DNA sequence: GAGATAAGTGGATGCTGTCCACATTGGAGT
DNA sequence: ACTCCAATGTGGACAGCATCCACTTATCTC
């Protein structure tokens, strides 16, 4: 009856942890994945890392600071999902088709992440005030671009290939982002929750159609 | 030095409160107005009502149940703001112009509420799972329609006047709602926070333009 | 080697939601 | 008019939470 604890308890024997800061972030991400931002509880995170609650204060000012870093990491995962969606694109017929596909992949990737990792998605964007920092470096994906920057680049592509008139370009990211993010919320927490993935994908394409027409 | 407490403490002398359930909801709305859903704290709410924390459990199963009712009340206020926006519309030239104006007023009212009462707006829609009940009776405004139903009615008006092709009608509320709600989030918590009201209004009209074109 | 200093510990405080047993009282039924 | 009951409010307790302060331990620097 030694295994009273649930999972694994590393039971570190060294006084120093060695990599506590990262361990806390990792644990925070894991908790956020299954329970969203409110599940990132200081005591739970330190417990996971096999350390006393106060130890966290050597690396973060308070719970909000930890949550902010976790949030940034989640945003970076959004960026990577977008990048993956673009990378998986089949070769396009011409450059305008390619630009369109890359633009649509931005939205599709965003929506895919929201559905596959709702907890992380909420953590990424639901924390009041954290979206302001969505342009910070540590919110970037492999390409070094944040989700917002990826969207901007895709829109630039639309302008370059003549699909989007130049005078419609300013502020276009806010239009696109509004629509896609709104749908994501609808799919995660709203009346569209529990929609079959295929139907959800259709809804996503529908919204992106609307954006292309209306932008 | 008798006035140690901050505000007013009714200091009820009757053992029974008389209208505690409503008093708790009112207090909850007040807290939500200034602090959002997380400010609807059971103990604070009962304190405000001049009652011991446990008394709340005679009227609500738990904090979540209270918050749900407060959320419904907030949604009803959204509906009323939309209705007010429609009611304030100047007389239109013809029926199609009227239908368009009524449709746009739905979005404009929604966005106006989000900006004027961000705390209540968050409380209305930020609570996971509560948007599912956005069609409940007590989420309705003066007309007896919920925000979703108001949007649906406005879309029906667009179809009747021939502005919106009938085959585009199904699912249109989700497209429109996605875009407008997404912008609301952007304005409240996102990079567009703190935008000058006039600019915010412009952004709203921009998004509604996109919806009209792209729907 | 000595001492500064970063990193982790232990204990305490005041919040929170919720449970249980108890007190009060208004009203229904006699 | 009297009694009893069920609804309503109280009091005390518990566990979990974030955070503060004083203390210990190990590592890095001179």
Walk me through what this model shows:
Chains A, B: Residues 41-60 bind DNA. Chains A, B: GO terms for molecular function: DNA-binding transcription factor activity; transcription cis-regulatory region binding. Chains A, B: Keywords: DNA-binding, Transcription, Transcription regulation. Chains A, B: Residues 18-78 form the HTH tetR-type domain. Chains A, B: This is TetR family transcriptional regulator. Two copies of one chain form a homodimer. With 215 residues, chain A is mainly alpha-helical. Chain A has a domain at 76-214: Tetracycline Repressor, domain 2 (Orthogonal Bundle). Chain A is 59% helix and 0% strand. Chain A is built from eight helices and no strands. The first copy, chain A, has helices at 20-35, 42-48, 63-87, 95-116, 118-125, 147-160, 172-188, 197-214. In chain A, helix 4 (95-116) crosses helix 5 (118-125). The longest helix of chain A is centred in the middle third of the chain and has 25 residues, at 63-87. The first copy, chain A, is elongated and about 60 Å long. The termini of chain A are far apart. Mean pLDDT of chain A is 92; it is low at 1-8. Chain A binds chain B through residues 36, 126, 128-129, 131-132, 134, 148, 171, 174-175, 177-183, 185-186, 189-193, 203, 206-207, 209-215, and chain B through 36, 125-126, 128-129, 131-132, 134, 148, 171, 174-175, 177-183, 185-186, 189-193, 203, 206-207, 209-215. Chain A binds a DNA duplex (30 and 30 nucleotides) through loops.
């Amino acid at each position: 009856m030694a295994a009273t604890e649930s999972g694994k308890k590393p039971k570190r024997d060294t006084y120093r942890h060695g990599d506590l800061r990262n361990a806390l972030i990792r644990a925070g991400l894991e908790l956020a994945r299954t329970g969203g931002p409110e599940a990132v509880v200081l005591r739970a995170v330190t417990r996971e890392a096999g350390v006393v609650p106060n130890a966290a204060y050597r690396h973060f000012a308070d719970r909000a600071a930890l949550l902010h870093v976790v949030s940034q990491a989640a945003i970076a995962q959004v960026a990577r999902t977008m990048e993956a969606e673009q990378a998986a694109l089949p070769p396009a017929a011409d450059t305008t088709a390619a630009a369109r596909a890359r633009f649509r992949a931005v939205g599709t990737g965003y929506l895919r992440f929201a559905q596959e990792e709702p907890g992380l998605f909420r953590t990424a964007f639901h924390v009041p005030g954290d979206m302001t920092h969505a342009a910070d470096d540590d919110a970037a994906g492999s390409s070094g671009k944040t989700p917002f920057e990826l969207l901007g680049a895709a829109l630039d592509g639309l302008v370059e290939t003549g699909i989007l008139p130049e005078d419609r370009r300013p502020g276009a990211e806010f239009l696109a982002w509004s629509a896609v993010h709104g749908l994501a919320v609808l799919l995660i927490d709203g009346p569209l929750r529990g929609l079959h993935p295929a139907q959800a994908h259709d809804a996503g394409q529908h919204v992106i159609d609307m954006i292309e027409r209306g932008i």
